Amino acid sequence: MKNMLIRAPNEVLNKSFSNKIDFTVMNAGEFSADPKTEDVTSETSVAVNFKERELTILGTQYAGEMKKGIFGVMHYFMPERGCLSMHASANEGQKGDTTLLFGLSGTGKTTLSADPHRALIGDDEHVWSSKGIFNIEGGCYAKAVGLQREKEPEIFDAVRFGTVVENVKYFGGDRPRTINYDDVSLTENTRICYPLEYISGAKNPALGGHPKNIIFLTCDANGVLPPVSKLTSEQIMYHFISGYTAKVAGTEMGIKDPVPSFSACFGEAFLPLHPFKYAKMLAELVEKHKANVWLMNTGWSGGKYGVGKRMSLKITRALIDSIHSGELEKTEYQIMPGFNLRVPKKVEGVDSNILLPANTW
Asked: What are phi and psi of 343, to 5 degrees?
């Protein structure tokens, strides 16, 4: 948690502890919850009491429950202050343009926000206020499975002394203290947790202006959504409320093959209020600040899972680069039948055939 929360100076901590504690998290993960207790349905329980400002974790040793618990707390208190809490990563261009990337676990939020040409604001949890956006967290919690310097150099190089590694194993032998990111014998949900400043060029303090671009990331295991499309105001609301993606191996226990999933606002598990509350706030902010909103499929192309293949990171990065350069805003579009999505006819550096899914099947 020292890595994952914003670290206040000692004098501020000493002062605040002498007055009051904002919130208490009690992690008893090795102690199982009792399913006979009212409203407890399994041996795993993450319970929050907003009145007493306490959070209790039972029956799960997944460290992410602590940060996600605080995220749920922020989803309760931020709208009270007229601010929108969001399950999204964020970065900033050299000209000060901010981009938000919404998405569930496994869609690419952390990977795509760590962009060598842009300053990282944060990889998972942000709030949009009247002044712009700010990161709730002081660190990143990235999936470690298959991590390679060639594909994700910023994240790979963030693993150093002070980084917490979870569920991973080492090579041993003549390679002591060297992590084997391909070893998933414990679980596919291997993680690395490091302070924000371990990412080269990260913003400190982690603040940004009002977003110019907002990207909804979805991992479509059916291979029918296009790699990128520009959304109308009605489509923004539909896709935000539906929060479609696929749960893939490494996101939840027992998941081996992708399972279609709908999670309101791309973060239903964290919403203590009705999803329409957050959706209405997003619609108002997008309209007020004239943000472009895009739907991006980081899932399958050329057929469903088992037939086609996963969209390459190289293509996805090229599409995001074209959004940031302004190229996609000006290009010519075609309407994809069925979903009525506006799909670009061509993008520099990307094979035009893959832009319409039907052409790849």
From this structure: -110, 130
Kindly write down the DSSP assignment for every residue of 201-216, as one continuous string: T--SS-EE-S-SEEEE
Alpha-carbon torsion 217, 221, 227, 232, what sign? negative
Q: Per the confidence metrics, is the pTM higher than 0.85?
A: yes
Q: How far does Cα 311 stand from its chain's mean position?
A: 18
**Cis amide linkage into residue 205, ω under 30° from 0:** yes
Q: Where are the domains of the chain?
A: 84-138+203-360, 153-198
Whole-Å CA distances, 169 to 25, 87, 105, 316: 28, 29, 22, 30
Which residues neighbour 263 within 8 Å (Cβ) at sequence distance 6 or greater? 104, 243, 245, 269
Element (H, E) at 237: helix 233-242
Q: Residue 80 is inside which H or E element, if any? A: helix 64-80
Retrieve residue 292's tokens.
Answer: 């472009």
Look up residue 317 and give its DSSP letter.
H
Cβ-proximal residues to 186 (8 Å cutoff; 6+ apart), any chain: 167, 168, 169
- pLDDT at 231 exceeding the cut of 70: yes
Query: What is the CATH architecture of 84-138+203-360?
Result: Alpha-Beta Complex (3.90)
For residue 52, which phi and psi values (nearest 5 degrees)?
A: -85, -10
Q: How far apart are CA 6 and CA 138, in angstroms?
A: 4
Q: What is the pLDDT of residues 140-178, one digit of tens each?
A: 999 999 999 998 999 999 999 999 999 999 998 898 889
Tell me what the pLDDT averaged over the chain comes to: 92
**Helix/strand/coil for 25:** strand
CB burial of 205-226 (b: ≥16 within 10 Å; e: otherwise) equals ebbbebbbbbbbbbbbbbbbbb
Question: What is the Cα–Cα distance from 182 to 186, expressed in whole angstroms?
Answer: 11
Helix (H) or strand (E) holding 244: strand 244-247
Inter-CA distances, 1 with 69, 84, 163, Å: 11, 23, 12
What pLDDT band is residue 253 in, cutting at 50, 70 and 90?
low
HSE-up of residue 123 (Cα within 13 Å, Cβ side): 30
